[in-house]
Structure prediction request, 175 residues.
Amino acid sequence: MTTWKIDASHSDVQFKVKHLMITTVTGQFAKFDATMQTQDNDFSTANITFEADVESISTQNEQRDQHLKAADFFEADKYPKLTFVSKGVKKVDDDNYKLVGDLTIRDNTRQVELNVEFGGEVVDPWGQTKAGFELSGKINRKEFGLTFHATTETGGILLSDEVKLLASVQMIKQQ
Prediction:
């Protein structure tokens, strides 16, 4: 069994949501952790756990960040972490996988499927073996209890229900 830990300083975990249905707001989590266990370097055998600290959410707007941490959205004081636990990985081709797992936000757990692109494996200048991955997927925020809704004066939608998930990660092989 090979264990890999996320290199948080060289990884990003983001989400994107449509605002007023005309622009996209991007947010990210500054504090997160992930572990992957594989049989040797066969990523199709991966078991992955991930968690993000909701208090570390940032959209580059302090007022919006505070609203996201409040009861209308993540309710960070009651639900401080969001988690993902893999259930299976399917190899599509040499560089692409489908990752299925349980995502939990606000004690609501739903199965999600993420597209994973393998970026390669390399030994860095300090002798650490690293593997890179780009992950993407979509969720419906309301399925996770993120039900805040408002309309504009003309009846338009303030926020999309669909949220895009994006992550660019480097994993470090543990010795």
Summary: The longest helix spans residues 62-69. The chain has one helix and eleven strands.
